[in-house]
């Protein structure tokens, strides 16, 4: 796996993890300077079982915490990860 890149365009953003020509992503929408919606996590078959989705959510949580942002989890995968990690409760709305 390579480093996770963060891309922001206007009110949309995404985290991208690339490996061997495949690309996993977590997309989000910016509601305000202190609130985002985690919209979707997509992991291609070639990257399933590698922890790519979890790594994307971990990066989202770390950045949200560092920037004082709250996350609204619309994406079912992000919601499930939030339930599995009660230590992340401070960044989820």
From TrEMBL:
List GO molecular-function terms, semicolon-separated. transferase activity
Q: Which InterPro entries match?
A: Acyl_CoA_acyltransferase (IPR016181), Gcn5-rel_NAT (IPR045057), GNAT_YJDJ (IPR031165)
Keywords assigned by UniProt, alphabetized: Transferase
Report which superkingdom the organism of origin falls in: Bacteria
Q: Does the keyword Transferase apply?
A: yes
In terms of Pfam families, this protein maps to: Acetyltransf_CG
Q: Which PROSITE patterns match?
A: GNAT_YJDJ (PS51729)
Domain N-acetyltransferase residues, every copy: 7-93
The cross-references to PANTHER family, in alphabetical order and at most eight, read: BSR4717 PROTEIN, PROTEIN NATD1
* The name this protein goes by in its record: N-acetyltransferase
Query: What is the source species?
Result: Roseicyclus persicicus
Which lineage?
A: Bacteria, Pseudomonadati, Pseudomonadota, Alphaproteobacteria, Rhodobacterales
């Amino acid at each position: 796996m390579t480093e996770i890149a963060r891309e922001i365009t206007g009110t949309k953003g995404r985290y991208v993890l690339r490996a061997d020509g495949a690309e996993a992503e977590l997309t989000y929408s910016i509601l305000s300077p202190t609130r985002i919606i985690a919209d979707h996590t997509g992991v291609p078959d070639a990257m399933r079982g590698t922890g790519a989705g979890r790594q994307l959510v971990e990066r989202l949580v770390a950045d949200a915490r560092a920037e004082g942002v709250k996350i609204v989890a619309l994406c079912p995968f992000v919601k499930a990860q939030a339930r599995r990690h009660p230590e992340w409760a401070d960044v989820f709305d």
